[in-house]
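Reading a protein record of the kind used here takes only a little practice. These numbers are not coordinates but entries in a learned vocabulary of local backbone shapes. Here is one such record, which you should read through line by line.
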Amino acid sequence: MSIFEAGMMICFGVSWPIAAYKTYNCKCVHGKSITFSYLILLGYICGILHKIFFSRDIVILLYLLNTAFLLTDMFLWYRYKNNPAPAADKKE
């Protein structure tokens, strides 16, 4: 197991629940990129496949947990994509 890989996954893992919580609370996705989320999802899938085929260790659980949080945030993006931007962000 690489402690550095685990550290990276923990740092990323902290950000996804926060992002999903903020999206859920404000009910808007203004400024979020679903394309960026799909690219990160692809990266997590590649990491999971690498762990399955080449380097089985406990870090795969961090990949799976991060993927679940990311998918939650992506679900919320689709749920709230048609909601208007907050009033402070609207341009007149």
